[in-house]
Inverse folding.
């Protein structure tokens, strides 16, 4: 299972490896980049599609790291999807989000994460 080590503006370290982009971690512990063609660091809005993928992978809890300024947020569609599927959303600054994710993994929860590393 993936474990977050640390985060600084523009970088995140997972299992001893540093990444310079937003990350998604599935409930099975697979790490994926959260990027698109336009923006190396992903979007400031977390989408329904991102939550759907984690839900399909078995997430009952999704930890959202909004970075420090809380500029990153969930789209209305994402909020509605989470409510409809009874997914517990944990929205925290990215510093706190990685700690909470690690704790939930230690507790054996089926948890996914989307962590924004800038702003």
């Amino acid at each position: 299972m993936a474990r977050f080590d640390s985060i600084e503006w523009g970088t995140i370290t997972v299992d001893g490896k540093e990444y310079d982009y937003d990350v998604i971690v599935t409930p099975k512990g697979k790490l994926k980049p959260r990027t698109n063609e336009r923006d190396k660091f992903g979007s400031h809005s977390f989408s329904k599609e991102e939550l759907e993928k984690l839900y399909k992978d078995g997430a009952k809890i999704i930890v959202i790291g909004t970075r420090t300024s809380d500029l990153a947020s969930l789209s209305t569609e994402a909020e509605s999807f989470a409510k409809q599927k009874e997914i517990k959303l944990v929205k925290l600054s990215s510093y706190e989000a990685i700690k909470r994710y690690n704790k939930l993994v230690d507790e054996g929860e089926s948890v996914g994460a989307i962590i924004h590393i800038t702003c």
User: Anything to note?
Assistant: The longest strand covers residues 4-8.
